[in-house]
Amino acid sequence: MRKPVVAALLMSVLATGCGATVEKPSENASSTAVTLTNCGQRVTYDRVPERVVTNDVGITELMFALGLEDRMAGFAMPDDKGDLSGVPWKDGYDKVKWLSKQQLTKENVLDARGDWVFAGWNYGFRDDNGFTPDTLKKLGIPSYILTESCRNGRTKTSRGIMPPLDALYTDLTNLGKLFGVEQRAATLIAGFRKQVAAVRAEAPAKSPKVFLYDSGTDSPFTSGRYAAPEEVISKAGGVNIMNDLDDSWTTVGWETVVERDPDVIVICDYGDVGADQKRKFLLSYGPLKNVSAVKHKQIFVLDYVDLVESPRNPSAIARLGAYLRTVADSGSAS
Q1: How far apart are CA 192 and CA 187, in angstroms?
Q2: Distance between CA 170 and CA 167 in Å, rounded?
Q3: What totals of helices (H) and strands (E) does the chain contain, helices first?
């Protein structure tokens, strides 16, 4: 095993996001139009945003990782998404205003004098509350949709149009182009690719089957093949047992989980029901008693931000990869 290699790569990537001087945002590009492809559509922005408003932790940290705190007017994010004191982009949280601990609203954006909104479907944008890119457009405020959340047309709400890491790299590339920090984006992406490749090279010969458990007791909320856990799991050396679902985050039945018999369950830790409570539920829920992961108590916890599109995805892959290797070495993978 080459854990020192993974650790070195991780430190190199995080150093880039911790304030290392890689590239300053372009100072003279504020009036230059930039055209990007977002969710399959060509979108032209007439000027570089100067008062960006973001929704949720992963999206916000994409901006921080590119050193774009000074271009931000604020962010909305619940305070149940983990401890932010030790994150690589702590300076960003210190500098940028926390506008709301609820879902982002039109009022938040207007009060902050926002000139560009970065959010996603079910990551701020919602049809049921009227906060959508079209609503913002009518107010003269352009927006950008998180690629992981792009709707794919299978249903009115199903999401995902490309593999999750490709979505991460697409958004970093687009942000780099728009804000004039293309080299910084390219450096981040190259570091992430090396880190992921190093973990993948150490993957066990036999891939453990993994179930991602977000929440739910009557029916579990989990990840299909277009949400970040798909590649957090697969690049770590496992197999997402729900990778045949053409959606990002979705609900399935417990009978499907039992039938597919995962070797490992990964808990997404956030919200009022924490990881310890979720673990107790899984271990005590009768229908799961013969599932391999439950019998062997092979349950691993990752934070919410590790499992949505964010610059923390590669480090999550490294941590889960180390755990899956111990599972494979123990011989408890089916």
Answers
A1: 9
A2: 5
A3: 13, 14
Measured over the CA atoms of residue 76, residue 151, residue 303 and residue 87, the dihedral's sign is negative
Spatial separation of the C-alpha atoms in residues 292 and 69, rounded to whole Å: 45
User: One-letter amino acid identity for 157?
Assistant: T
Give me 150's structure tokens: 């792009």
Per-residue model confidence as pLDDT tens digits over 131-168: 999 999 999 999 999 999 999 999 989 999 999 999 99
Evaluate whether 318 touches 199 at the Cβ level (below 8 Å): yes
Position 1, amino acid: M
pLDDT per residue as tens digits for the range 24-70: 665 545 568 999 999 999 999 999 999 999 999 999 999 999 999 99
- The half-sphere exposure of 52 on its side-chain side, counting CA atoms within 13 A, is 25
Give 183's Cβ-side CA count (13 Å radius): 7
Would you call 262 helix, strand, or coil by DSSP?
coil
Q: Are strands 221-223 and 249-251 parallel, antiparallel or unpaired?
A: antiparallel
Cα separations (Å) of 199 from 3, 6, 224, 319?
Answer: 9, 7, 22, 9
Question: DSSP of 20-34, one letter per residue?
Answer: --S-PPPSS-TT--E
**299 and 278 in contact (C-beta within 8 Å)?**
no
